[in-house]
Structures are given as C-alpha cells and as structure tokens.
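May I ask for an example protein's residues together with how it folds?

___
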Amino acid sequence: MMAGLLRIVATPIGNLDDLSPRAASALAEADVIACEDTRVTRKLLSRVSSRARLISYHARNERQRTPELVARVAGGEYVTLVTDAGTPGLSDPGQRLVAACIEAGQRVEVVPGPSAAVAALVVSGLPTARFVFEGFLPRTKGDRRRRLARLAGEERTLVFFEAPHRISATLADMADVLGPRRAAFARELTKMHEEVVRGTLPELADAADGVRGEVTIVVAGATPQKAESSPAEIADRLRVAIAAGVSKKEAIASVATELGVAKKAVYQTAIDERL
C-alpha cells in the first residue's frame, strides 16, 4: 500500500500573493484538504489546480473528524491541513490531528509560511530574541485579569490574539495589570489597510476604540529584577560612602538608588550596624 501523508500547510493571512510554491503544490497534490471553512479554502484554491475533496475541520468537530482523517492517511491518501489563515495549530485546529497521526505512526510534514503572531512580533519593534505566544486570553474580565497577573513577571515579549469586540477591554486590563509598558497592536496584516499602532499600553487602550478585524497584540516583557541586596552588602556600601565624607542621610539615599533598595531598608541597616 502506498504510504499516506499529513501535510500541515500555512496559508496567507490576508495577501494571497503570500501563498508559497510549496504550499500551492501541497494543495494541488492533496487527495483531501481539511479546512476550517470550505468557502474560504475554495477561494484560495482558485489560484491552484486542485481536485482535492474539502472536509470541514474546525473547533466544533475536530474530535469527531480526527479518526477519519488519520484513517485516510493510514490508507495511503495525502491529507493537507489548512486553516482560514496562517499556520494550523496556533490558536486554530490542528494539534489534535497532528498528535493522532504521530501516535498512529503516520508521516507528518510541515510547509511553513505566514503566521500573524510572528508577523506582528517582528513589525512591533519590540525584542524578538525570546517571546511567548499566549493566543487568546480568557473572555471574562476576572479570568482575563488573573491570567495577566500570572504573566506580569514574564521577562520575554508577550504575543496575544484578540477579537475586535474585546480589544479595548483587553488593552485596558493590560494597562491596569501590567502597567505602562511598550506595546503594539497589528490588524489587517499583509492587506491594503494594514495598521500597526505602537505606544504604551494606556495609549493603545485609548487608540483601540472602533478597531475592526482580528488583532494581534505584542507587549514588552517585564523588566528583569535585580537580585536582592543583602544587609551586609548595604552596610559595606554605606561605610564606603560615609568614609568618603558623605553625610549619613546622603549616603542612605545614594545607596538606596544604586542598589534599587527602599530607603527605609537602608536606614534600618544603618541603625543595625550603628553607622
């Protein structure tokens, strides 16, 4: 029996010219294309000569459809997995099918390409060396703010997806919980009306009213915290400053600023050490 194959294929996030030659070949060679919305994928196939059968595969039916698609791969068919836009598996259906095919010992390949998360990250101007993709935050305000609180200490750049009707509330919660960090939101990426808005979180919250289309939000990570200075280190710095002729009051203020320690803690050390 001929070996089957599951191909995970990234498709354009807006501009159809971003469909790669490899992606076009994968669509053309497929026996079956598993897609979120058959109407959206048919528009994409207008650029490709393909006789593949389209099967809907979305969040509401992926559990039921996965065994059928695995069986097709096991039976020798070429199954291509796409979403409406971007890379399958990133806040879109796909991971369940990929894991099931791997578990069944079937071949799995990826045809990389567009991703709104990566596109927004690199155009944001924020650090890209280390980042965390968080997908969609919880819909309810309380759950959303609790999730953001857990991310408050994360030093890597944060990337989120958000629906247009929640963007203002989400950015307002981010400003409250994460503070005035640098951030950006991007919409209509790769399309004619592409827009990237950059600023602090409070500024973006004010600018988000009336935004349409799904949005990608990129937020700077937390500023790395200095290791806590020990009382012995604080005392040593105080002695050096006082020996240099600085008044005790000035020495306390200087050491507090230098070490990033509260003045009260430095003052208490001065008392404890009888400086």
Summary: The CA atoms of residues 14 and 88 lie 15 Å apart.
